[in-house]
Design goal:
The structure is a single chain. By secondary structure, the protein is of the alpha+beta class. 15% of the residues lie in helices and 36% in strands. The strands form 3 sheets. A 4-stranded antiparallel β-sheet has the order 1-8-3-6, with no helix packed on it. It has a 3-stranded antiparallel β-sheet with strand order 5-4-7, with no helix packed on it. A hairpin with a 5-residue loop joins strand 4 and strand 5. The longest helix has 20 residues. The protein is extended, with a radius of gyration of 23 Å. The termini are far apart. The relative contact order is 0.26.
Amino acid sequence: MKTFKTKLALIFTLMLLSFFCQGQETKVQRKDLQHILLDQQLHQVEMQEITLEKAQKVPAHFHPCPVIGFILEGEIIFEITGQKPKLLKSGDTFYEPKNREISAFNNLSKTGVAKFIAIYLKAGDEKTIELLNTVK
């Protein structure tokens, strides 16, 4: 008997929810973050969550493939050699062009980590990163 009452209560609850939700539109909101044109075929996509320790500085480097990403946590100073440095905060996106030197990708916090997602857009079997052994 208890099972029947439980099922009946569930059915009644679902009917009420259905009644109250009729006519209500659920709208999907979209916000453009970045548009990037790639001059290559995509063969493989790799995604990594990367954590930089407090005040960690990444050595100058380049990527043999384009990289797109977004900041999950913290603040990062990002500089493509020859361009003005950018401050990236949680929710910001970034683009690292293929074979361009990245002179800074550093965690600004002296007390907390910075986390980001990096998405590597590969045409073949390229490495994800090549370090240049210098830190800015």
